[in-house]
Amino acid sequence: MRQLFAPGADAILRLVFLVLAVMVVGGLAVVNGVSRSDYFYGVGVAPEQPVPFSHKHHSGELGLDCRYCHTSVEVAATSGIPPTWTCMTCHSQIWTGSQMLAPVRESLANNRPLHWARVNRLPEYVYYNHSIHVTKGIGCSSCHGAMDTMQLTYRANAFKMEFCITCHRNPEKFIRPAAEVWNMSWKPAADQAVLGKMLVMQNHIRPAAQLTDCSICHR
Fold first, then answer.
1. Of 120, 194, 118, 203, whose CA–CA distance to 164 is shortest?
2. How many domains does the chain have?
3. Which domain, by its residues, includes 204?
4. Burial of 154 from C-beta contacts in 10 A (0-12 / 13-18 / 19+)
5. 43 DSSP β-pair partners
6. CA 106, CA 90: separation in Å to the nearest integer?
7. In a domain, 30, yes or no
8. What tens digit of pLDDT does each residue of 82-129 get?
9. Residue 123 maps to a domain
C-alpha cells in the first residue's frame, strides 16, 4: 500500500501539537497574570468624581481627622460617606463662590446627595467591617495607602484575598497603637515584633486559625 504521508509528517504533527500546547498554556498564563495585576483591579486610577475632592489638602495640609467626614468608621461596617452638610460646615463660609464647588451648593439647595464614584469595591461575597479593624489597631493607611498625599483619591491596593490573609495570619506585624490608627505616616517600630504581640494580647485579637477561617470574611 502506498504511503499517504511524507516521512516528515509525523514530526510536523508533533511540532504543531507542541506549538498549540505552548499557546494554550501561555494564553492561560497571560490571562491569569492580567487578572491578578494591579491594572486589572484599577490600582492607582482615580475615578472621575462630581467634585475633585483632595484628601491631600483636607487631611494632609489642613489636618482634618478622618472621622470628621467618615463618622461611622469606628462603630459600623462602613466608614460612611459624608452628607453635603458636612462639606458646608466650612464651605458655607469659605470658597462660597467657587465654580468647582457648585455641585455641593446645588446638592444642598435641592436636598439631593452627591453621587460619588466608588473607589474601593469588594466582591459581594466578601464581608468587611471597618469598625473591627480600626478599633483593634489596624490603621487606615494599611489598606487605603497614604490618603494625606492623594490629590485625587485612587485605589492603593488590589484587595485580593492574599492581601487580607497576609495580615490575618500575622496581625502582630501590622497592628499599631490606638493613637496611631489615624496616622498616615506611621511605620512599624524597630521592636514591632514585641510591640505587635503585646497589642494583639491587649486588643484580644483572635488566633490566626480563627482569623483565617472562611466564615470570617465569607458569610
1. 120
2. 1
3. 55-81+116-217
4. middle
5. 155
6. 16
7. no
8. 999 999 999 999 999 999 999 999 999 999 999 999 999 999 999 999
9. yes
